[in-house]
Amino acid sequence: MAPETREERVRRITERIHRDRGFVYDVLGFGAQLDPDYFEVYAQMHWGFFKEEPRHLDPKTRELIELGILAFKGMKHEVYTHAKKALRLGATMEEVLEAFEVASIGGGAPVLMEGLYALKRIADEQAQGKGKA
After folding, report:
1. Domains plus CATH for the chain?
2. Taking the alpha carbons of 98, 78, 112, 128 in that order, is the dihedral positive or negative?
3. pTM, rounded to two decimals
4. CA distance linking residue 21 with residue 76, whole number of Å
5. Mean pLDDT value of segment 75-87
6. What is the 3-state secondary structure (H, E, C) of the chain?
7. pLDDT tens digits, residue range 25-71?
């Protein structure tokens, strides 16, 4: 069997990230092109470790926890994409909102606001038929 080309390796890495996360940020694909060695480890080290299977926490619960952290850090784009992923994993809009509400107890009102902006954007997209969560 011929050794894997750099292009094939980058494709394999980005496909793994997509499979494990449900999406791939363009910048991660770009990073994989620049340094496939690092991003191969990155793919395993982050969500690749957990996969879409329950360990002690089910995937939906892990995603809801991640949402609170991302909102606390003010990471708008990541809050939006991870809220969509939580919905794909079976969370309801109300469950996602509750995750932000709980996180706002320790993180303050800005956590709730980040979550509300993301949920409103998703609801607006769904109402316009621009896609599922």
Report:
1. 6-49 (no CATH), 59-127 (1.20.1290.10)
2. negative
3. 0.75
4. 17
5. 95
6. CCCCCHHHHHHHHHHHHHHHHCCCCHHHHHHHHHCHHHHHHHHHHCHHHCCCCCCCCCHHHHHHHHHHHHHHCCCHHHHHHHHHHHHHCCCCHHHHHHHHHHHHHHHCHHHHHHHHHHHHHHHHHHHCCCCCC
7. 788 889 999 999 999 988 888 766 666 666 788 989 999 999 999 99
